[in-house]
Amino acid sequence: MASTTATATPVRQPFERRVEEVKVSKREINGVVMEYLVHEGFPSSAKQFAIEAGMEPKEDIESIRVRVEIRTAIYQGDIQNAITKINEVGYQILDQNPSLHFALLRLQLVELIRPCMASPNGDIAPALTFAQTVLAPRAPSNPEFLEDLEQTMALLIFPPEDLARPLAGLLDPELRKSVAERVNTALLKNEGARREARLRKLFALRAWVEKRLREAKKDLPDKLSLGLDLEEEEEQDGTTNGAHDVEMQDNGHLEGEDTL
């Protein structure tokens, strides 16, 4: 007698059924995606997405490229070039945000000190001159400025291998990224745009809600899908080379693709 194997019907949890009942229009989804591409500096992708979705980006593509150029300059340690481009967009951006301006100048000082630390005979004169003529006059206006300047100058005292964590953090590329994000936010504010893309807020809110629900022992699936087809494809073939790789390929390439 031939045996038969019963196929179990997946049990749909109440949470999943409620999610399916929520209807969001494609137009709303496209708007959130487009805003993210514009906000985060993906001009080529925004242009292509606009064509495929049959919509017009609210922001001029060229203005996105300006933000990308500025962010690229910061990522590459070319801070003076970044400051020049920011001022070309509008002098008021840095004039009205002294904290951001000082952060950029401090990062410029770090970039002047960096080559000195790479060589025992490095010339520290340019760094000292910049600190004395540009940063020192600004430091007394804010105790945090003075503390940041003193901390940065300490890089000239200690050898690279003996730096404490706060000092080592000044040489970490993450500092460039942090300053670049602040600049991008300031540029968006100057354009009258949102300071943060709604997609980022939605993902953060989703993570927070899931955390709270699990802490409250609510009946949830073991894994909550983001609703992206890419997730299912990656699970089936065991790969993770989807959108993440695309974004990493974009990083650092201004020509031909979008972002840093």
How would you explain this protein's 3D organization?
This protein has about 260 residues and is mainly α. Helix content is about 65%, strand content about 0%. It has helices at about 15-20, 25-40, 45-55, 60-75, 80-90, 90-95, 100-120, 125-135, 145-155, 165-170, 175-190, 200-215, 230-235, 245-250. Helix 7 (about 100-120) packs parallel to helix 9. The longest helix is centred in the middle third of the chain and has 21 residues, at about 100-120. The protein is globular. The termini are far apart. The model is unreliable at about 230-260 (pLDDT under 50).
Helices and strands, in order, run as HHHHHHHHHHHHHH
Form type: globular
Oligomer: single chain
Tell how many strands the DSSP assignment holds. Answer: 0
End-to-end Cα distance, whole Å, is 64 Å
Please report the number of helical segments: 14
Radius of gyration: 24 Å
**What structural class do you assign from the helix and strand content?**
mainly alpha
Helix content: 55-70%
Runs in which pLDDT lies below 50 for 5 or more consecutive residues are: 228-260
Average predicted confidence as pLDDT: 78
The description of the largest β-sheet is: none
**% residues in beta strands:** under 5%
In short:
This protein has 260 residues and is mainly alpha-helical. The protein is 64% helix and 0% strand.
